[in-house]
Write a structure and sequence with these properties.
CATH class: Alpha Beta
Number of helices: 8
Radius of gyration: 16 Å
Mean pLDDT: 97
Bound molecules: D-xylitol-5-phosphate, zinc ion
Strand content: 15-25%
Number of strands: 8
Order of helices and strands: EHEHEHEHEEHEHEHH
Low-confidence stretches: none
Structural class: alpha/beta
């Protein structure tokens, strides 16, 4: 199991990042919010740049924003391996093409109340599907158990079409909930469970 920690719920973001840098996590998941697509807002890209200075882990940037194109132009200077955009956007295809034109991988996030079929037109050309286990907007929420059936369904859609995308899950993942989804995913995003723990590496190991 690949573990991608999110540091959204951390009090001291820089310190958390420095600690994550010294764990075995395979990527760091960077949450970006515009106060429109979701209620909360994250700081300007310059703050992200500052706090991520010297961090060498690969980054995946989760854009919970309406104007994804603008955020991609701003955040591509952080050199992410992947941008994750939401399937609920109006211009999904255009944004996928923009991200790929920069040689960056595309993840497609699906909110708990969005039908999986909404992602169907894009599944053959993306590198990851990120199934949300909570309604996006903040860390520390409880896992929505309906996600278990959804990830199983996504897994069989992938197998049926021999699609190449990876399946990942974001929101409410801890040492208990991971057991319900682990057969159907090869990576998870986990925020508060890791960064609220004392020993980050121990928390990460418990998810693997
Ligand atoms: C939710 C964010 C998640 C969040 C995960 O809106 O996209 O990445 O930080 O945090 P936990 O694991 O605490 O649900
Ligand atoms: Zn996220």
């Amino acid at each position: 199991m690949l573990v991608y920690p999110s540091y959204l719920s951390s009090q001291n973001r820089r310190l958390t990042l420095e600690k994550l840098e010294n764990t075995s996590c395979e990527r760091i998941h960077v949450d970006v919010m515009d106060g429109k697509f979701v209620e909360n807002t994250t700081p300007d890209v310059s703050i992200f740049k500052e706090e991520l200075k010297g961090i060498t882990k690969p980054l995946e940037i989760h854009l919970m924003v309406n104007d994804a194109k603008k955020y991609i132009e701003d955040f591509k200077e952080l050199n992410p391996v992947m941008f994750i955009i939401h399937v609920e956007l109006k211009n999904v295809k255009e944004v996928i093409d923009l991200i790929h034109s920069y040689g960056i991988q595309v993840g497609l996030a699906i909110n708990p109340n969005t039908k999986l079929s909404k992602a169907a037109p894009y599944l053959k050309e993306i590198e990851q599907v990120l199934l949300m286990g909570v309604n996006p907007g903040m860390g520390g929420q409880e896992f929505i158990y309906g996600t278990v059936n959804r990830v199983r369904e996504l897994y069989s859609i992938k197998a049926g079409h021999q699609y190449k995308f990876d399946i990942s899950i974001d929101g409410g993942i801890n040492d208990n909930t991971i057991g319900k989804v682990r057969l159907f995913t090869n990576s998870v995003v986990s925020g508060s469970y890791i960064v609220k723990g004392k020993d980050f590496e121990k928390q990460i190991e418990s998810l693997r």
